[in-house]
Amino acid sequence: MTAPTFLRGRKGAFLALGAIVLLFALVFALPVAALFRAQADDRAEALDQLAAYRAQDAQRPALVARLAALQQGAKSVPGLLTASSAALAQAQLQSDMKELIDRSGGALLSAQLLPPTKVKGFDSVAIEYDLTIPVSRFSSLVYAVETHTPYYFVDSADFVMPPNWRPNPQGQDPSMEMRWTIHAFRWRGSR
To answer: What is the distance between the terminal CA atoms of the chain, rounded to a whole angstrom?
Structure first.
């Protein structure tokens, strides 16, 4: 069996060599070149990201200083309790409320601390109070709580009025029993 005439001689060898080179280029060289091109694109993108991260990192000191100033400003908001922990905030609330109740002529019977809750960067502290107060002094107590700084909020209130109560012309002022829950907020900061 003899080879076809176009594969004989020098011309055939060059054709075979050209086919091998073309096959090599298609199978190996072009994919490797595509990989190098993709790697170069990835490198350029990585360098762009690195430059963006460095620019953001350069802004960090200014942002940290601004955050510290905002947190300090939030601590000094007049409507918030100034205690450094939730337990101390409850003690502040309990002390202030006892003073308001005494000043209004009421008598504090009990105070039950409720667990503090976290609300968007704040601690909400609450105490449930049982007290008695003369009916005529009730409005002064409510007004004192309403206008108090730091701000106090009434969550729930139950009242027991004296039975068959009517205004008494002899000056007797019957007492009513109250149970109410008062809460206030304390800045928790970034903790």
So the answer is: 90
